[in-house]
Amino acid sequence: MTRAPLVALTILAACAGVPVRAEAPSEGVSAARSSTAQMAYDWRNVRVGGGGFTPGVVFSPVEPGLAWLRSDMGGAYRWDAQAKRWWPLQDSVSEGNYMGIESIAADPVDPGTVYLAAGMNWSAPAAIFRSTDYGATWRVTPVPFRMGGNENGRGLGERLAIDPFDHDRLFFGSRHQGLWQSTDAGATWRKVGSFPLSGLGLPTDRRATHGGLSFVVFDHRAKGRIFVGNADPGAQHLFQSDDGGKTWHPVSGGPPADLLPAKAALGRDGVLTVTLCDGIGPNGITRGAVWRFDPKAGDWQDVTPIKGKDAPVGGYMGVAVAASDPDTVAVSTVDRGDPVDTVWLSHDGGGHWDELYKRSVRDVSATPFLDFDGKANFGHWIAGLAIDPFDANHAAYVTGATVYATNELQEPGTMHWTPWTRGIEQTAIITLTSPTGGAHLVSGFGDISGFRHDDLAVSPPHMHLNPFLANTNTLDYAGRAPLVMVRSGNIHAPVVPDTSLAWSADGGGSWTRLHVPAGKAHADGSPPPEQTGNAAITVSADGSTFLVETDAPRFTRDRGAHWQTIEGLPSRVRVTADKVDARRFYAVDFVKGRIVRSDDGGAHFHAVAGSGLPADLSAARSTNREAPPPLLADPGRAGALWVNLDGALWHSADFGETWTRTGKTIEIERYGLGKPAPGHDDPALYALGTVDGLRAIWRSVDGGNDWVRINDEAHQWGLRIRVISGDPRRFGRVYIGTDGRGIVYGDPVEGRK
C-alpha cells in the first residue's frame, strides 16, 4: 500500500465577518508563534458576486438544501440554505496550490462529510481534504498523485467518488498517474494496479497537462459496479468494474474514439449518460456528443441534441439526471459561441430535447456587472450542471463568470434564472487603490476589468468601461484631485484595439478613452507596449499631467490632445507620482542603479543622490505588467517615499535624496500605505511578508520598525495575494487583492489583540 503522510490536525473554515480561532495548526496553515505580536481584525469580502469559473456544483444526496461548489483558484464553498448564502471553506489554507479544487465528493450516507481533491497545478503539492462537520474543520492528507484544478480539463469530473455501500472507500481518477483507492476515508491511498491505464506520467512541459481519468461513478443500486472515464487519447474511453474495482474491462461500442468523455451521471434506472468533447477544454473544443449506456442491455444510444452537418461548433460537458425521474436528463454545451452556450433538457431520456436558452431570462440585478456588454447571455464554459435531488424544479449551472439557478426547471413557458452567488467571490485581483477622496476603493480585476466600490457590501454598478479592458493592469489617482484617475489594461488577445488607456474625472464612475501616438513595432515583430497593455500610466498630484510609459515615455497636459517626449526617463521603469507635490515624479532606474526624479511635472527626469540605498537596484525591476510598483509615495506628505528592494523596505523623507532602511525584522513581498495611527506621522504600513519564519499579513505604525500580525489561521486565503493597500482616510483599514478569493478588507477589532 502506498501511504501518504496524514496530517491529523484540523483546519478551521472561515465564515466571512465572523472571527474564528483555530484550535491547532495543520498542513497548509501557518500557526502564529506565541512570541509574535498579533492584533484581532474583522475580515470581510468586498462584494462583487461570483465573477470566476466554478467548474463543479454538487448537491448532497442525503440532506435537502445542502450543496457544494468547487472553484479553480478560490477554494470550495458550501451552500447554507438557512442563511441563504455560500460559505467559503478554505480561507484558513496557507498553501496556495490547495485553492484549486480538482474534484468534490459529497458523502452518500453522512451529510456532514465531504471530500475535496485540492491541487491547482501538477507542479505543486496536492492533497485530499476530509471534513465530517460540513466543512468547519478539515483533515488534510498530502497525496503522491498530482492534480490540475486550474489547468485545462478543470471542467471534467467528478474524479473523486465515494462507494455508497462502504462510505470509507473512495476512488480518485488522476490526470497523470492512473486510478487510486482509499479504504480508510482518504487517510491513505494506493494505486489500483488492476486498472488497465496507468497514466501518461507528468508532462515534461510545465504549461502542458493531461485529461487523465475524467470521472469515477458508482452505481448506487448495483453493489460493486463502477464506471471510470478516460479523457486521454486512445482506443478505449470507458471502463467498468462489477466487483468493486478488483477487475476492469473496457466498455465496447458507443462513441467514436476521437471523442473524449467529460462527465457522466447515473440515473436510478442504472443508465449512464456521458457527455463528450474533442478536447478537454474549457477552450478549444469544436465538436461533441451525448451518449447513454445501459449496462443491463450492454448497448449504447446516441442522444446528441443536434447531430450531423447542422451541429454548431462546440461540445457537451455538464450533465445531470433527476433523482425523481431517470428520463429527465439535462446536458450543457461548452465552447459553443454561435449563438451561445446552452442547457438542453429532455423528459424522455434524450429522445427529444428542449433548448433552454431560447425560453430563459436572467435577472442579474444583484450582480449588475454581468450586463456590462448588453444583456447577460445564457453563459459560456457551462462545464457544471446539477439538478437538486430533492426538488427537480431546482437546478443550477456554472459559467466562466457566475453560477445561475432556477426553481422552474420542470415548468413550461419562460424560465427565470438568477445568479446563485451570495457569498461567492471567485476573482483574481490585479491592482487596487484607495484614493484620498471619492470612493474609498477602486479596483482592477482580471477578466472583468474592475469597479468603483461606493458600498463594499453591494455589487458595484460602476464597472470600468469605455474602453472595456478585460484586465486592468495599473490604476492611479491624483493625490490632491482624487476624482481624476487613470488606468491601463489589456484584453485576451495580443493587441488591444483602439486604446489600452483611459482616464476618469469622477473617481472611476465613468471613463474616457485616452489615445497616445502609436509607436513602432519592435525588432522581433512584437507590438509596442501601448498596443498590448504593457504601458503603465501615472497622474500628477493635481490631476493635470498624465505620464505614459511607452517605449519613448510621453506626457500630456491636455488629456491626450497633445503629447511630448520625456527627457531623462528610461523606458518601462514604473513611475510613481508624488501625491502632494504636482511637480514631482519618481522612478527607479534599475539599470544604472539610481533613483530619478522630475521637478517640472514630468517633462524632465534627473538622477538624485539616493544616498543610503544599495548600489544594485535591480531588484526593483519587473517585466510583469501586473506587478505592483516597488516605489510608493505617502498620500499625506510631499517627498515621503517608500521602496521595496528584494524584501527590504527603505524610506526617504526628502524627495529621494537620502534613504534609511526600516523593517529589518520583515521580508516583504507586497506592501501598501494607509492613514497614520493617532499620534504618528508615518503612514501605517501593511505587508504580506515573513517575520521569524511566519508568512502572514502584518501592520506597522512606527515606520516599519515593529510589526504586528493582523490576520489569523482562519483568514489566509491560500496567501495568494497580489496587492495590498491601506486606506488614507481610515486608520486600520486594509484592502487585500487575492488571486482567487476576490478583495478582502479588514478593520481592527476594538479592545481585542
UniProtKB/TrEMBL annotation:
GO function terms (MF aspect): hydrolase activity, acting on glycosyl bonds
InterPro entries reported for this sequence: WD40/YVTN_repeat-like_dom_sf (IPR015943), Xyloglucanase_GH74 (IPR052025)
Keywords noted in UniProt: Carbohydrate metabolism, Glycosidase, Hydrolase, Polysaccharide degradation, Signal
PROSITE patterns given in the database record: PROKAR_LIPOPROTEIN
Superkingdom of this protein's organism: Bacteria
GO biological process, one term: xyloglucan metabolic process
Signal peptide positions (record): none
UniProt family annotation: Belongs to the glycosyl hydrolase 74 family.
Protein's recorded name: Uncharacterized protein
Organism of this sequence: Novosphingobium malaysiense
